[in-house]
Amino acid sequence: MLLDAHTAAEQLDPAAPLAMLLHHFDVIVQTPADVDKLDAAILQLAVEGKLVAQDPNDEPATVLFKHIQKTKNALAKNGVIPKQKKQTQIDGTETPYAVPSGWIWCRWNDASMHIADVDHKMPEALDSGIPYISPKDFTAGNGIDFSSAKKISSQDFTALSRKIKPEFGDIIFPRYGTIGVNRLVEVDFDFLASYSCAIVKTMTGYVVPQYAYYYSLSPLVQKEIEKYINKTTQPNVGIRSIQDFLFPLPPLAEQKRIVARVDELRRHTAALRAELAAAAQDAVTVNNAALNRLHTAEDAEVFDAAWQTLRHAFDPLYSVPQNLTALRQTILQLAVQGKLVPQDPNDEPATELIKRIEAEKERLYKEALIGKPTKAEIVRRNVPFSVPELWLWTKFETVANIASNLTDPSSHLDFPHIAPNNIEKGTGKLLEYRTVREDDVRSSKHRFYPGQILYSKIRPNLSKVVVVDFEGLCSADMYPIDSHIDTRFQHLYMLSETFVSMATNTDTRVAMPKINQTELNKLLVPLPPLAEQERIVAKVDELLALCDLLEGELIEAEAVRVRLVDAVLAGV
Q: What's the domain range around 389?
């Protein structure tokens, strides 16, 4: 019975499927991108004649079209518009779908007063004058920021607007860059649009401006753009091509009903988009507050309580992908603060570890494997945070050695070549890379070895750091580093918010911002007992693996949901 009722409803009202979709859409809609798809579907239904019911009493579009042509001929004869070139005939194979009875297919120029652009002379910019806008002045929705636009003289305005000028109800159609990201003119004062845009002068009285505008934003027009686009260095669509766009022309009365319905539905989708954005921001805010409680916990009891609160809210909080990024960074930060695993009073204290590191560095120096080491320094003042009892603060140069082994690449063409863009920012993961030969490396590069850390010294890549288990050459924008502590712990610390913040703040240069070896060696490092370093690394690996698993599930679930949204919209 329900199916029969639904079928009957479709026969009476072509928009019935959309009504059912809107009634249930919040069940599957989760992102602003979904709402964008819904908006596109609404516009496509509008230009297919499926958004409102047809009325057999409406004057058919064939009659309307004759009125338009008669009016255009009179305007051309009186010199108001140029004499119109005959548009290309539409054959039966060109139209993408059948329009309802009472509609017709025509060319956009045939349904418009005129489509053209202004004179291509570039006007002189003044401090004040008449606005000369371009797509860079477009703002959200249908907005145009006239205050920020270039200003031109009245003489230039008069000269450039002889071909055409935008007026209330016209459409500004960018032909380059953001092609088809259009604006409906809703102001009634003088301005010009750059020759990078077409001006579509609406045949007001015969074509409702908002109907033409919604048509210009529809997927139908996107397909027309793809059909006519010139794919040169800067892709563009010519004026004649825009004039030739297929235009579905409904009866005038139906145009008005379509516009009213689209306006109503877009108010609904705008509210839905705002709700989703607010909900996403709320989830981020709650997550940040929960993570902040972990960061600021003063003792184990407070920390455990904050962690339990976070775990209970895990599912809703971490359905938002950006929250996972914040969680990963929190795990690293808690790890290097000594809050992730319990301390063991039987561990050898970090002071003894420092002594052994000094002895090892002295041995390496005597064997001419490193330069003369500086004396290890324990730092007690002006440290980023307090550390547990068996820990201490020291300097980067105490626990690591910045290696330098410049190598001629011509004799290592089949070696891997690692550059900053081969490392994922903030995660320490190595991405796909190529060989020295494939990257066509010619200048000397650092040779690195298994077990070393590769660190990008160039901003904005100061959180790009990876441990390698193979030999190769790395970019001159990177430091190979030997660690004298647990290499993975040092790697995790170099990914942490504390380290990245210190590395970033050392840089005062503008031309090529980077951290040099002297600055890097002075950065502070929290040093746990070696046994605790190993426990920290194991715990971080466990937690980050859970994050990766959760992210994979989110990505898979999102892909399924997107396919569902697309299938539902395709069925409307």
A: 350-528
Rg of the Cα trace of the chain?
33
Cβ-contact 339, 296 below 8 angstroms = no
Q: pLDDT truncated to tens, each residue of the chain (572 aa)? A: 223 333 333 444 555 556 655 665 666 677 888 888 889 989 999 999 999 999 999 999 999 999 999 999 999 999 888 887 777 788 878 999 999 999 999 999 999 999 999 988 889 999 999 999 999 999 988 999 999 999 999 999 999 998 999 999 999 999 998 898 999 999 999 999 999 999 999 998 999 999 999 999 999 999 999 999 888 778 899 999 999 999 999 999 999 999 999 999 999 888 888 888 888 788 778 777 877 877 777 666 777 777 777 766 666 666 666 778 888 888 899 899 998 888 999 999 999 999 999 999 899 889 888 888 888 889 999 999 999 999 999 999 999 999 888 888 998 999 999 999 999 988 889 999 999 999 998 888 999 999 999 999 887 778 899 999 999 999 888 999 999 999 999 999 999 999 998 988 865 555 556 888 989 999 999 999 999 999 999 999 988 888 888 888 777 877 777 777 777 666 65
**Structure tokens, 246:** 């297929």
The β-bridge relationship of strands 183-184 and 465-467 is unpaired
Same-domain pairing of 318 and 361: no
Is residue 465 within 8 A of residue 428, CB to CB? The reply is yes
- As a dihedral over the C-alpha atoms of residue 390, residue 396, residue 399, residue 402, rounded to 10 degrees, the angle is 170
Q: For residue 140, give both structure tokens.
A: 């959200």
Q: How many domains does the chain have?
A: 3
The last residue of one of the domains, among 250, 276, 309, is: 250
Whether the upstream peptide bond of residue 460 has omega within 30° of 0, thus cis, is: yes
Q: Report the relative pairing of strands 130-133 and 192-193 from DSSP bridges.
A: parallel
As beta bridge partners, residue 400 has 483
Burial 43-53 (b: 16+ CB within 10 A, else e): bbbbbbbbbbe
Give just the sign of the alpha carbon dihedral 482, 488, 494, 495: positive
Whose CA is closest to 139, among 86, 81, 181?
181
Longest Cα separation, the chain: 101
Q: Which amino acid is at 253?
A: A
d(CA 34, CA 40): 10
Q: How many residues does the chain have?
A: 572
Are residues 207 and 157 part of one domain?
Answer: yes
Question: Do 380 and 509 lie in a common domain?
Answer: yes
d(CA 121, CA 113): 24
Output the pTM of the full model.
Answer: 0.67
How many C-beta neighbours within 10 Å does residue 206 have?
A: 20
What residue type is 457 in one-letter code?
K
210 assigned to some structural domain: yes
Answer yes or no: do 224 and 294 share one domain. no
Rounded to the nearest 10°, the torsion over CA 446, 448, 452, 455 is 30
